[in-house]
Amino acid sequence: MTGTPGIDPSAPPSGTGCAECEEHGGWWFHLRRCTQCGHVGCCDSSPAQHAGSHAAVSGHPLIRSFEPGEDWYWNYATSRYADNPGPELVPPLSHPLEQAAPGPAGRVPRDWQSHLH
Ligand SMILES: [Zn+2]
Ligand SMILES: [Zn+2]
User: For the whole model, what pTM was predicted?
Assistant: First the structure.
């Protein structure tokens, strides 16, 4: 423990895609990483919003963007951006650069934009 609620910097990301979407054959827009357990879920614009439902079910309030080049945190408990609480989370800090967004490749419908929230 680091003393920072909602953060376990030693928890690696659960994978390169949304854990639930991978399980159910879904697709996502952008990805978020739970900073407490490493769960990777899809963003609130995605059809299934698994990052938000993970926060609600688990009580883990903080996520970090899992998109390449993004380093912001969001607190679901307060519905506000959170400062980088440090220390840095274990890598990888994003899904692979070559991985498409929306993704995964092959499961995104042609009219994907009409499915966003
Ligand atoms: Zn998902
Ligand atoms: Zn979690």
Answer: 0.94
